Write the structure tokens for this entry.
Amino acid sequence: MSLYSIDALDGKPFKDEVLSLVDRDAMEERSALEILSWAVENFHPRLTISASFGAPEGMALIDMLHGIDPSTRVFVLDTGRLHPATYDLIDRIRDRYDKNVEVVFPNAEEVQEMVRDAGMNLFYASHEERKRCCRIRKVLPMRRHLAGFDAYVTGLRREQNANRANARKVEIDSANGDLVKINPLADWTHAQVMDYVTERAIPINRLHQQNYPSVGCEPCTRSVAPGADPRSGRWWWESDDTKECGLHVADPEEAEGSGI
């Protein structure tokens, strides 16, 4: 049975039509490679993968998609505050796969206004200021970039944190213009991801070897003790239930102010 064919939609897919045509329960039984093959078949070339280059999940997905269709697009959000190791990895992936990694930058005027108003390291002052920084440096740039696509692939996994525990392999992303959001690794464990990149000798962020299981912006990431929650090194000064940048958790006020 065909799970979904874009031809049946006569154009760009919309939320209600996708939900009616996709058997999302059946998709949960599909492997990561099957999900990605389906995504390429139905959405390419208006499909992209979002990779942070700070987690091995994205590297595994880039490798899988390269085997399915090397022309599949990849983008990374450059906040201007990333670790040097992350920039090095972008170049390594670019060279290995002959891939044009699309680097997406924040709006310079928005960043300048924020810094003039609250300082370079405003994110340490309060949760609200940290969210403001994430919104300007990450959330709004991603929304602007995704406006040119119908679907995108992420490395979200359910075990990463409580906010992601209910992630489906195929979702509708209402925060980003009702795009189809594809999470092929939703049911994978961290061990499965590491086994995949190790077996295929895929480059990953070198900070993983220094007890950085999750690498974000340099001022907002630190190493963690062995066995600690993998995301405990991200925004460590905040409580666990607030540790999201806004890319994968809808924020009504944020969406209202995005201008998109």
User: Anything to note?
Assistant: The chain has nine helices and six strands.
